[in-house]
Amino acid sequence: MIQQAHKSNEIAAQAFSLIKECGLRPSPQRIAVAAYVLCYRTHPTADEIFTGLKEQYPSLSRTTVYNTLHSLVSSKGIMEVNVEPGIARFDGYTEPHAHFRCQMCNMIYDIDLIEMSFPEEFDISGVQVNLTGCCPQCRVNPKP
Q: What H or E segment, with its residue span, contains residue 74?
């Protein structure tokens, strides 16, 4: 229980720093949005974040969620992940990595990238590799 509280305080501190680094005023709602993305490695959508925080923050608006996410992505504090058409998801893990989406259960997994080299004449500002298929759990227990 104490370890869980410590981890929660650690994530809140990271979220506070992230908000400030992005040039935003660190309101409780903005900190909560950033903490949600940092804490939940499920690659949540803006609507999932809004729904997940609305009970705890009744004054939270969808506009605050969208604007906060947009600012965090613009300043490269988080990543926008597009692993399925028309759905923007958000990822607090910003090190280069790939995403795997299971076509059976729709779960999204982070996959480490093997060292990649690029020609020096290219100025690369971001990398996004998306894979689809069947995750190990669905391979063992396929759903009808």
A: helix 62-74
* pLDDT per residue as tens digits for the range 94-124: 888 899 999 999 999 999 887 777 788 988 8
Q: Is-contact 53 33, C-beta < 8 A?
A: yes
Asked whether the beta carbons of 49 and 36 are under 8 A apart, the reply is yes
With both helix axes pointing from N to C terminus, report the angle between 62-74 and 28-39 in degrees, rounded to the nearest 10.
60
pTM of the model: 0.83
The CATH class of 2-91 is mainly alpha
Degrees, nearest 5: CA angle 135-92-136? 10
**One-letter amino acid for residue 8 of the chain:** S
At the second CATH level, the architecture of 97-140 is 2-Layer Sandwich (3.30)
